[in-house]
Write a structure and sequence with these properties.
By secondary structure, this protein is an alpha/beta fold. It has twelve helices and eleven strands. The chain folds into two domains: 107 residues, Winged helix-like DNA-binding domain superfamily/Winged helix DNA-binding domain (Arc Repressor Mutant, subunit A), CATH 1.10.10.10; 179 residues, 3-Layer(aba) Sandwich (Rossmann fold).
Length: 328
């Protein structure tokens, strides 16, 4: 960061309001326009100035563009931390600015309420299919408790929740993680997850649209990687797990929660399952080939589907192999 563009970017009342809003949560540009009562093109111009000054960051998710603060009082660089502190002090000491920020946050509360209503509507529309699938296996509570036990008491560090869906796993494990990143290929699912996580600090999580077979992250970016009822959607799970290995640091933990092998063929058409679960032999082979040392699996029997939890420790990069579907 440089001082001149930082000060120029902050020398506008609207951009000051935007930065105070972004201190609370990530927002779409359209949502910012709604809160500020300004046109989207005008807000986009302000956003461009803030991003050019490294005060904010854009992120594209489908057709939506989200904006988040790039600065924080306890984050590097020092100039960004100082700017964040200045904005906090300004709201504390300037009564008119404080009143404007409070009004913006009231509008922001309406945005949050709309997100939650949208999430509730989505689940109402899909309740029947969710309930049908849930009726086939062990209830969520025991599975979540067993997963927490399998991951152990140690801090999770930087956690990647692959196929985050509604954000339930990200929400559950966020208190034990340094930072949570939820990845999903569905913009609609990410909007549901955002509604679930929106009450957490804005800098404690990311939600990213992407493909689990080509993760948009640098090597060794995460301490813990989680696949919760996701891997059965993979046409080539060995490629997905190789990507998981790439982004997991040495000594990091991988957890896969999925179904034991079964014969419920209707799940292929009704729920788009590419794999009818996994045997222990299949999963342990996949994990070993990807460069993980598997632990003993945990089984949670249901009627008729059994949920399995496989955990493993990252030990080495996998051998380079042609990217093709496994026949195991």
């Amino acid at each position: 960061m440089r001082i001149d563009p930082t000060l120029r970017a902050l020398a506008d009342p609207t951009r000051l309001r935007i930065m105070r809003l972004l201190a609370h949560m990530e927002l779409a540009v359209g949502e910012l326009a709604q809160v500020l009562g300004q046109s989207q093109p005008r807000v986009s111009r302000h956003v461009r100035i803030l991003c050019d000054a490294s005060l904010a960051e854009r992120r594209k998710e489908g057709s939506w563009v989200f904006l988040r603060s790039a600065i924080g009082e306890d984050r590097a660089p020092p100039l960004g931390a100082a700017a964040a502190r200045l904005l906090t002090v300004a709201e504390e000491g300037d009564a008119a600015f404080a009143a404007r920020c409070q009004e913006d946050r009231r509008h922001l509360a309406a945005i949050r309420a709309a997100r939650e209503a949208s999430a509730a509507s989505y689940f109402a529309r899909h309740a029947a299919e969710w309930d049908t699938l849930r009726s086939l296996h062990c209830p969520d509570g025991p599975v979540e408790a067993a997963l927490a036990g399998a991951l152990g008491p140690a801090p999770l560090g930087r956690l990647l929740d692959v196929g985050t869906g509604t954000g339930r796993m990200a929400e559950l494990f966020a208190p034990d993680a340094e930072h949570v990143t939820g990845l999903d290929n569905s913009p609609e699912m990410l909007r549901i997850a955002r509604a679930r996580l929106q009450h957490r600090p804005a800098d404690s999580f990311d939600l990213v649209q992407g493909d689990f077979a080509a993760l948009p992250f640098a090597d060794a970016s995460f301490d813990t990687v989680l696949f919760h009822q996701v891997l059965h959607y993979a046409q080539a799970p060995e490629i997905v797990l190789a990507e998981a290995a790439r982004v997991t640091r040495a000594g990091g933990t991988l957890a896969v929660v999925d179904f034991a092998a079964h014969d419920r063929e209707e799940l292929r058409t009704a729920h788009a399952h590419a794999r009818l679960g996994f045997t222990d032999e299949q999963m342990l082979g996949l994990l070993s080939d990807a460069g993980f040392a598997p632990a003993a699996p945990v089984a949670l029997p249901g009627q008729p589907l059994t949920v399995k939890i496989w955990t493993a420790r990252r030990i080495a990069a996998p051998a380079i192999k042609p990217a093709k579907a496994t026949t195991r």
